[in-house]
Specification:
alpha+beta, six-stranded antiparallel sheet, three-stranded parallel sheet, binds fe (ii) ion
Length: 433
């Protein structure tokens, strides 16, 4: 049948995209729209000779509940946003948290959470072997529901106690995998018991995988950048003696210092994790230094030293280039990396380079890395010196504190002899051996 007339029904607030409206078109709006639509759908009103070609209430006033995920927000903010959406249907979900698994050390550590001030597990880590119930989840490769945390009351593990003390009464724990590799756990906690029903879990599973993908995407981006920077180094045939175990150790010393300063400087787990991930790239600018200077066995002349010192600024420039070329500007905390590369040779008394910044004008991440880097250089064997004992290195750090190095950062490291020794045992490969 040929179209004789076009009838369009639309609510008042809709944006109708029909153009041009043909002559003979009737447009019913507002209340009339709802009444007529109902009558037509129920068959009570048949409007021949019109043919109803379009009932198109095109609306643009719906807000995508997860639209925050489209932007360049830090991962933690995205998690908080996803949590808000989950609470619209499942208001009993009081906390969402992610822990990451370090496949080198087999340690689980807290990473991000949505619980704000009330977080019972800030800066927490535990070897997977000692977290029996979590290990069991991993072995079974299946999530775990605990609908009444009293079940765990007898547990003597610190994280179980802290979660219980905070008043959480139920939990749902999902293991996260990327390409079959275990990367960490995702926790949903509630203050109420028996809330994780089959129906709720079906919804949480979808959100759980969405959050896992967000985490994987963030980690993959950082991985791509680290790989890009390392590959650049290899292509230019860099033979920097500061590789391998030095980077393993100094990045862990950096994390140790950041963890120790967390309360005083209000550092969250995400920041600490970035300091750990980015600190091995502190000397990336040395790629730009000629081998004749970089690998010179003897002391450098004044002009050679000047060229060597440009590695700090060159490092930042290289990072900027790589971020632009690989479209990595989505990494929320990329400034932490820029600051580490550019300012790790600044001194708190202003005698450092490249800017001569003073005290807290030097970004904290650069002050942390400076202490970790120097401590490992002192306690490692070099072609020109033997490895110093920890005590001798501590004495030197104390002398440098307040002059070259930040006092808080030095104390934060020195206070943790047992952890330092553990790191030294685990990453004791001697690159000159
Ligand atoms: Fe350096
Ligand atoms: Fe270094």
């Amino acid at each position: 049948m040929a179209v004789k007339q076009l009838v369009v029904f639309t609510p008042l607030d809709s944006n109708l995209l029909i153009s041009p409206l043909k002559s003979g078109t009737f447009v019913f709006k507002g209340a009339l729209f709802s009444v007529l639509r109902k009558l037509i759908w129920t068959g009570l009103f048949k409007p021949p000779p019109f043919q109803i070609q379009a009932i198109i209430p095109m609306m643009f006033n719906h807000r995508d509940a997860l639209e925050d995920l489209n932007s360049h927000l830090p991962l933690k903010d995205k998690l908080v946003s996803a949590h808000r959406v989950i609470q619209q249907n499942l208001d009993f979900v009081a906390r969402i948290a992610v822990t990451l698994f370090d496949s080198q050390t087999h340690v689980l550590r807290t990473y991000i959470d949505s619980s704000g001030e009330d977080n019972p597990l800030n800066n927490y880590q535990i070897p997977l072997n000692q977290a029996r119930s979590l290990k069991e989840i991993l072995e079974k490769k299946r999530p775990r529901v605990v609908n009444n945390l009293i079940t765990f009351e007898q547990g003597n593990q610190e994280h179980t106690k802290r979660i219980g003390r905070q008043g959480y009464a139920a939990s749902y724990t999902m293991p996260m995998f990327h390409g079959g590799e275990f990367i960490g756990f995702l926790f949903f906690n509630s203050y109420q018991t028996n809330v994780f029903t089959e129906k709720a879990l079906r919804e949480l599973d979808v959100f759980g995988h969405l959050i896992a993908l967000m985490v994987i995407s963030e980690l993959s981006t950082i991985h791509v950048m680290n790989a890009a920077l390392k590959t650049t180094g290899k292509i230019t045939h860099l033979r920097d003696p500061e590789t391998g175990s030095h980077l393993d150790r100094m990045s862990r010393y950096s994390r140790l210092i950041a963890q120790s300063l967390a309360r005083q400087y209000q550092l969250n787990d995400e920041y600490i994790e970035y300091v750990f991930m980015f600190s091995p790239l502190h000397d990336i600018g040395k790629i730009a230094i000629p081998d004749s200077i970089l690998l010179k066995p003897g002391p450098l002349s004044a002009s050679e030293r000047k060229i060597m010192n440009t590695h700090a600024r060159r490092g930042r420039e290289m990072i900027d280039e790589i971020v632009a070329n690989f479209s990595l500007d989505g990494i929320a905390h990329i400034d932490i990396l820029r600051n580490i590369a550019e300012f790790h040779h600044e001194a708190v008394n202003g005698s450092g380079y490249p800017c001569g910044k003073i005290n807290h004008d030097i970004p904290l991440e650069a002050r942390i890395v400076a202490v970790a880097d120097i401590f490992d250089a002192l306690t490692s064997r070099r072609p020109y010196k033997e490895a110093w004992s920890n005590d001798r290195a501590f004495d030197t750090l104390r002398q440098l504190a307040g002059e070259k190095l930040d006092v808080d950062c030095v104390n934060a490291l020195i206070e943790h002899r047992a952890e330092i020794e553990r790191i030294q045992c685990q990453f004791n490969e001697d690159v000159y051996g």
